[in-house]
Amino acid sequence: MEGSQRRLVMMAGDGESGESCRTFVFKGENHTLGNALRTVILQNPEVIFCGYSMPHPAEDQMLLRIQTVNSSPAQEALKKGLEDLKDMCHNVSNTSHINYEDVYEPAEDSYLMLDVLEKQLKELKPPTICVEIGSGSGVLIGGVASALGSVNAAYFATDLSPLACIATVQTGNTSSVPLNVLCTDISFGLDRLKGSVDILLCNPPYVATPFEEITAYKDDLIKASWAGGPRGRNVTDKVIRLCKDLLSPVTGRAFIVLEQCNDVDSVMEFTTEEVGLKADICGSYSKLPITYHRSSLPYVRKYNSHKAFYLMLDLPSLLGDYDDEFISRNQLSDNEPTDDYSNLEDNYEEVPHPVGVYYWGKDLKLGQVSGVAVDERNRPVIFQRGPVTWNHKSFDRNYVLQDKTPIEEDTIMTLHPETGEILRSWGKDLFYMPHGIAVDSLGNTYVTDTGLHQVMRFPLGSKEPDLTLGNRFEPGNGRNQFCQPSSVAVSDITGDIFVADGYCNSRVMKFNKDGELLDVLDGDWDIIHSITLFEDENIFCIANRNGQTIECFSTGLKRPFGQKMMLFEGVGCIFGIVAKGTALVGVIGKPDSSGITIDTSPNKGRIIDTWGKNEGISQPHDLAIFLNMGMSSML
């Protein structure tokens, strides 16, 4: 190239060094290309030095200096470096159109993910449906779509950021591949894809951060795209659980990025043991590179000291699942309570035989404790009534609360899991007759107040609800009403809210995360006192207190909402239930205060343990399971 169009100039050699030491001038280039070439060229064993400089910030040019061993010309090292750089990026979608002040810039993990996928995709059949969760710039889904083609295939992407969704569409356009993009949280709104996804991609926020940073960055979606909470797995675990529902049972496979701080062995165990998916590490890099962007040479890498892992998931060839016909306790021959705990071997790690620890929380001064839960940091949370008691004078015959004076002390308390000491308390002047409580994985607290006839959600750290369901002090059985709601459970996958409208209406109401009513399940139950979720199996269970049954139903993801799945009869007046793994644990108030543990795994469905009888339990009302010094503990 000549004259003003010349973009690369080789300066004269230095002294007697001849061809082995040269300086090259790149016009119209900057730090991006300098970092790129320096990193690549230094991998050449013939090169003993490579550096670059920018002579003046106002001049859009870069000086690159290369020194090689005497027998190797520096110009050849430069040519080889440029060729290697192009080889690194030739299969990657062009994202030079994106403003990275608004959208998270593709980084090293994405490009290493593409390297891994390039090897794996050769073994995969062209997909019918491919989904990326958290697409950002769209470089992953765009690269896969370019490699596999869009004939007879549909490519979907989701992202919480509207600007990222726009960027993903633009990436697809520049690569001439159609991408269907939905602005949503993880995969909310893609229910029709369940059981149909052939390839699922996800590069989640995996940086380990204090949990508070997740909500602190809710208005800064770029920062939120890397804040992963404790162990960096706040989103990762949700996506892994979701894979079981979304992946095709025949061809489905998921690829997820992990980082060393995520405790990869723990992720593998969680995936196989709790979720029930096959899991393999399909790639790892001991040095996680930093990526730079440039329109002419899009993607280059510079190494630092992190470690990346790439997790591949698919469904086992035979998945234990519930039959369409529900399991009835009365149909089983070995379902009676027993003092022989040999059956506990499979469930011991998740729910061992409970033993009372009477010193725990002994200094707490509480009123009636109506509800207990575990927060996002594995700390027990209690909901108590202070000086208020529920007796025959609390409500009139129309279920209207008689004393409308708010409780003038804190009603919600977060406790230390090892000592029971109060870490935080709040709720003064907010509630009238507390009952149920739940905390989701984002730290949102959900409560039911039977006096208010309402269900409320409080964001992490807030004392003001951002969602209130039901009419204040007004009982009713309409679509927007409750009558003494007793319990609430929340899906960490979809955000759906399941309310046991338990006392007067005896029904279950399902809402989405925005409070819109989705479904209602009516029944002839005699007070639904508690509700819990088996997320992995898409099942919720209710405690029919006075009917002395535990009944389980479909959440509506795989099967119709409310389809009966399991029934356990004659269990006593069951007040509270909680799901853990495949175990369903409950507390009984009458005839004797005690507890039971039920194995709900397929083809079993039996009571495997009874506990607490004659051990000081008095009028139990609810329970929760948390980790205390590495062991499962109950409250």
TrEMBL record:
Q: Which GO terms describe its molecular function?
A: DNA binding; DNA-directed RNA polymerase activity; metal ion binding; peptidylamidoglycolate lyase activity; protein dimerization activity; protein-glutamine N-methyltransferase activity
Q: Which GO terms describe its biological process?
A: DNA-templated transcription; methylation; peptide metabolic process
Among Pfam families, the record links this protein to: NHL, RNA_pol_L_2
Which cysteine-cysteine pairs are annotated as disulfide bonds in the entry?
483-504, 541-552
Q: How is the cofactor bound?
A: Binds one Zn(2+) ion per subunit.
Assigned GO CC terms? DNA-directed RNA polymerase complex; extracellular region; membrane; nucleus
The residues that hold a protein are 385, 503, 545
Q: How does it assemble?
A: Heterodimer; heterodimerization with TRMT112 is required for S-adenosyl-L-methionine-binding.
Physiological role: Methyltransferase that can methylate proteins and, to a lower extent, arsenic. Catalytic subunit of a heterodimer with TRMT112, which monomethylates 'Lys-12' of histone H4 (H4K12me1), a modification present at the promoters of numerous genes encoding cell cycle regulators. Catalytic subunit of a heterodimer with TRMT112, which catalyzes N5-methylation of Glu residue of proteins with a Gly-Gln-Xaa-Xaa-Xaa-Arg motif. Methylates ETF1 on 'Gln-185'; ETF1 needs to be complexed to ERF3 in its GTP-bound form to be efficiently methylated.
Protein name in UniProt: Methyltransferase HEMK2
What organism does the UniProt record list as the source? Lepeophtheirus salmonis
